[in-house]
Structure formats: structure tokens, C-alpha cells
Amino acid sequence: xxxxxxxxxxxxxxxxxxxxxxxxxxxxxxxxxxxxxxxxxxxxxxxxxxxxxxxxxxxxxxxxxxxxxxxxxxxxxxxxxxxxxxxxxxxxxxxxxxxxxxxxxxxxxxxxxxxxxxxxxxxxxxxxxxxxxxxxxxxxxxxxxxxxxxxxxxxxxxxxxxxxxxxxxxxxxxxxxxxxxxxxxxxxxxxxxxxxxxxxxxxxxxxxxxxxxxxxxxxxxxxxxxxxxxxxxxxxxxxxxxxxxxxxxxxxxxxxxxxxxxxxxxxxxxxxxxxxxxxxxxxxxxxxxxxxxxxxxxxxxxxxxxxxxxxxxxxxxxxxxxxxxxxxxxxxxxxxxxxxxxxxxxxxxxxxxxxxxxxxxxxxxxxxxxxxxxxxxxxxxxxxxxxxxxxxxxxxxxxxxxxxxxxxxxxxxxxxxxxxxxxxxxxxxxxxxxxxxxxxxxxxxx
Length: 446
Ligand SMILES: Cc1cc2nc3c(=O)[nH]c(=O)nc-3n(C[C@H](O)[C@H](O)[C@H](O)COP(=O)(O)OP(=O)(O)OC[C@H]3O[C@@H](n4cnc5c(N)ncnc54)[C@H](O)[C@@H]3O)c2cc1C
Ligand code: SF4
Description:
Layout: E1 2-3, H1 9-15, H2 26-33, H3 43-47, H4 54-62, H5 66-76, H6 80-86, H7 93-96, H8 109-122, E2 137-141, H9 145-156, E3 160-165, H10 173-176, H11 185-196, E4 201-205, H12 215-221, E5 224-227, E6 247-249, H13 250-259, E7 266-267, E8 270-274, H14 278-289, E9 294-298, H15 310-318, E10 322-324, E11 327-335, E12 338-348, E13 359-360, E14 366-370, E15 373-376, H16 384-389, E16 394-395, E17 398-399, E18 411-413, H17 416-419, H18 424-441
Helix pairs in contact: 4-5, 4-8, 5-8, 6-8, 9-18, 13-14, 14-15
Bound molecules: flavin-adenine dinucleotide (FAD) and iron/sulfur cluster (SF4).
């Protein structure tokens, strides 16, 4: 494995440019907006986890009211700009568009959402005012989508919010996890600054719960605490050879890609990516776009059981990534301390059409992939150590909540740390729910 010296700056910029470019002209946006049928029961709004009033914001675009359109979006989703770039819309709003039933392309809802919200952010159109401080103080752990969304609603109601964030930038996985061809670091920074622009939210960077601060301290100093620290590193494979040089965790691989220059990133010639979720797809496509000659995605189940969307898989395939289904990693073989091959058990379904756990074929057949890098993307591990240390009720590390409240006094939670890892738009909604519960707990009427 070598540091990336395969790409010129121009090639890198080309490979990592915006995968879903914006409308080039106002007319192009208007043509699409005018296709909307403004359905009475708006299946798109129902399919959006933050319930954005899609027909309303599209109608506002058709009447040249872009400012009002962005207001409609931000009212339901303060990260509406980021969501317009990263939402897996084929399984959300656009997947529900009635045009699909007519076998016509759905309204490009996300692209229209981007059209309005980008203008709002670029012009710093601030729509929400913070009420006068009511003296209540809330600490939020994590400046990701859930934490920011919760903080924004609380500050609107006059609560003084302090966010404790372990990294030196906000945005969470939006900044450190999602592929660079979906959102650039500059966009993430602009979006975070836009959200914080309302005032009343102090972010304390490089402050980690469990290291620099404790829950007890926060309970003493704040009226409520909202935990939104997401989930941690990728799960271990627990197979021989996992410690060899060249075996990397997908989250670390992508984190490095998002926080360093591409020349500082090591990528193999022949890469195996283990897993078939969105993280696996992002790791595979980015390894290929960084110049890996071969990338093979390995999944122990069938194609029908993949957790990424078909659209995401198509992106990986168009990038030239290969797939192997029904193959479970068994051993990593090394030479001189470095990865040389991945051996997998060939699997079969326990019962012919069962969704149960696949089993190795009875003949014990294996397959070997000669690779010099392995990226693990088989789900993420919750921060069980912190959660258990503070006796927070949980199921396998996922925090249990009731209307966003945990079992611990004054402590609320939401986002990936509760759902185990979904989408940005789900985390934004969780933040809204968390803020509503905290306001009710603090007896603040909104
Ligand atoms: C590789 C990858 C690709 C993805 N791609 C997409 C996509 O294309 N579209 C999409 O919608 N979703 C995608 N997701 C999912 C999405 O990023 C998450 O669902 C979303 O970011 C969750 O938001 P959150 O606020 O709950 O957590 P996070 O975004 O993880 O934010 C948590 C924040 O808490 C901080 N933190 C952690 N521990 C502590 C601590 N102890 N003390 C203080 N701060 C702490 C973290 O640094 C982070 O800033 C992807 C996820 C991954 C991993
Ligand atoms: S936030 Fe996402 S799911 Fe909701 S309408 Fe916008 S693009 Fe669709």
C-alpha cells in the first residue's frame, strides 16, 4: 500500500466533484417545479422523516418566491441544505412521488430543495429569531445533525445551549463521514455556521464526554442534557489477521479522507471492502476514485438482502467496483506483517428462501481474493463503554428512550446513538423530537 501519488490534482478534483450537480439555470428549476402535481395528500411529505411541506416549497419556487421556499424547508428541517445533497431520496420523498406510478421520472425534489436552500445559505437569509433568554441552560453532546437540530430549536425558545463536541469542527458524520462527492468540507462548514448564526449556541470544541467532561458535572450545571454523540467505529471482524497492516476501518478511512489532503491517504492497488451498507459503498467508491486498480465488495448475504439502496450500488458499479455475494470473511493472510489475501467461506442460505443467517456450504468451499488492502464496513459499534459507565439504559449499546428521555435524570438522547445508525434526515427529526421533550420538561411553552 502506498500513499496516494496516482492522481493529479485535476484528476482528484474531477473524481470527487459534485455527484448531483445543481440546476444550471433558473429556467431549468422552473421547468421541473412546474411538473409537480401538488398532490393533495403529498406522499413525498409523508415519506420525508422531517415532514417538509414539499408541494408548498415547490409551489413557492414556481412563483419566484425562493426566499419563502427555503423558509418552508428550514421550518421543518434546519439541515435542509445538507439533506438535499445526502438524502437517499429514492427510498424517501422521490421514491414516493406519484410520477413513479406513471413510469415517469419523479420530481427532482432534492435538487429543487438544494436550489432554494443554497441561495438562502449563500445570502445568509436568517429566518428564525431567538427569544429573550429564559435563564434555562441545556448541554448538548455532539455537534452532528441531531445535536445541531436540537440546539437550534432550543435557542429559538430562549434556552442557552452549550454544545460539547470532541472534534474541532461541527457537522458530525456530515463533515467527517459522508463521501466528499456528496458534500464538500466547505459546504459543511458553511451549513454549521448558518445554523449557529441564530445565536445563543456556544460550541465547545475538543471537549469529549467521558474524557474532558463527565455526565455528573453536566447534571450539576445544566437543566437538561441531550446526548447526540452518534455511533463509533466499525465493528470488528474477529477473524485471524485483522491486525495486519492494510486492514482499515471504513470510518477511519473516510475520516482521514475528509480531514487530510488526498496525497496523505494510503490506498491499496487491490482493495476488498467488507459489507454492503452505505458506508461500504462510500468506502469502495472513494477507494476506486482515489486510484485503486481493483475494488471488490464482499457480502455474506444475497443481493436482495443488501442494506444500501440500488441507486448507491449502481454508483459503485459504475465506478467499476465488483461485488461478491454470499461470501463471509474467514481469514486474512499476511506477508511481512502486511495484507496479502482475504479468504472467505462460500455461503448458502440456511433454508432456500429464508432470510435467516447464511451458513457456509457443507463442502467447506472457500474463495481467496489477492488484495493489499481490506476496508471493514460491517456496521458501527455504539459507545457502549460511556453508556454503561453512566448506567444509561440501552439495548446492545443503543440508548433506550421514551419520548427522547433516558432513564437517567435530566438526560435525553437521539440520533444514531439511539437508532444505531440511520440517515441524516432521521437524526434531524430526532433532534426536533428531543428539543420538544426538553421544552416540555423545562415547562417552556413554544
Ligand atoms: C460512511 C458513512 C456514510 C454515510 N452516508 C450517508 C448519506 O449519504 N446520507 C445520509 O443521509 N446519511 C449518511 N450516513 C449516516 C449519517 O451520517 C448519520 O445518520 C448522521 O450523521 C447521524 O447524526 P448524529 O447527529 O446522530 O451523529 P453524528 O453525525 O455521528 O454526530 C455525532 C457527533 O458527536 C461527536 N461525539 C462523539 N462522541 C462524543 C463525545 N464522547 N463527546 C462529545 N462529542 C462526541 C462526534 O464527533 C460527532 O460530531 C452515513 C454514515 C456513514 C458512517
Ligand atoms: S429532507 Fe430529504 S427526504 Fe425530506 S424532502 Fe428533503 S430530500 Fe426528501
